[in-house]
Amino acid sequence: MTTSATPQAAALPRIAVLATGGTIAGSAPDAANTAGYQAGVIGVAQLLAAVPGLDSVAQIHAEQVASVDSKDMSFALWSTLAQRVNELLASDDIDGVVITHGTDTLEETAYVLHLTVKSAKPVILTAAMRPASALSADGPLNLLNAVTLAASGQAGGQGVLVAFNNRIHCARDVAKISTYAVDAFQSPEIGALGWVQDGRVEFQRRALRPHTVDTPFGAAIQWPQVEIVTSYAGVSRLAVDALVSAGVRGIVVAGTGNGSIHATLQQALSDAVAKGIPVVRASRVGSGHVMHNGAAKDDALGFVSAGTLSPFKARVLLMLALATGTSEKAELQRVFDTY
């Protein structure tokens, strides 16, 4: 659907809003009790109608791409979404894209798009912690701010961004840090890129690592199977051995602290590397970075350091790297050091 344009609106930026479901499109019978709400049941037209003044910010082209709870995000939907974003941004009729998404896997989808969108035009993800039917629903303001950011002329060339609770985050940095708060997203260690409020957009910094048009990754791929295991007290090697037997293509380990790994699990992962399965060492901590240990550990064991990427984003990057034919340890480390 496309909103009708008045002569005044014709001068406004043209922003495509792609809806995928999530809490922002959720509804519950009781406005004061959202425990049993159902995600993704409200269509994009109703989402847009709940945002006063949106037609004074941009001309809106709206599409319902999916209606899912983002906990159920799939590889197929990632590919569909990336391909559709690229198609829209290749058109002179679209100046930017806003995507409404569930909060559970938003940071993963944002990073996928950050690496696979091939345009400098703005792409903004937004979401909500409260369903549309709730008291003080946060979705309408987040959506207004996302469209404002996409239409501002300042978001181009900055990769994929997340607009949430008045803050602007880089897709690579952002993480969900609360199960309930409306300020559920932060960029640990690094901080937000800027803010958007009352129609004003201000950036305090820019993302430095290559993204979008400066990556070799495409949207039309066969997603290789990569899984995540976690190190913890008393961990066994059962999960790693089962994954190897199942034919997994890569493993990310969420280690303790600076990516340290229990000796039993470390031996299992080293055995996996010996069988040609790349292993990337990340941390379960939630902030900080995993240092490359050099010859003493990572090089000797054949592990790759995830740097500042969370285990979930490290999995995304490993899948994309493997899909492009990169599997040798030194080249994988270069990929992780770069993107």
From TrEMBL:
Gene3D superfamilies: 3.40.50.40, L-asparaginase, N-terminal domain. Its EC number is 3.5.1.1. One of its GO terms (molecular function) is asparaginase activity. The active site is at residues 23, 103. InterPro entries: AsnASE_II, Asp/glu_Ase-like_sf, Asparaginase/glutaminase-like, Asparaginase/glutaminase_AS1, Asparaginase/glutaminase_AS2, Asparaginase_C, L-asparaginase_C, L-asparaginase_N. Substrate binds at residues 70, 103-104. The keyword Hydrolase applies. GO terms for biological process: asparagine metabolic process. Residues 14-207 form the L-asparaginase N-terminal domain. It is an enzyme of class 3 (hydrolase). Residues 225-336 form the Asparaginase/glutaminase C-terminal domain. Keywords: Hydrolase. The keyword Transferase does not apply. Belongs to the asparaginase 1 family. This is L-asparaginase. It comes from Paraburkholderia bannensis.
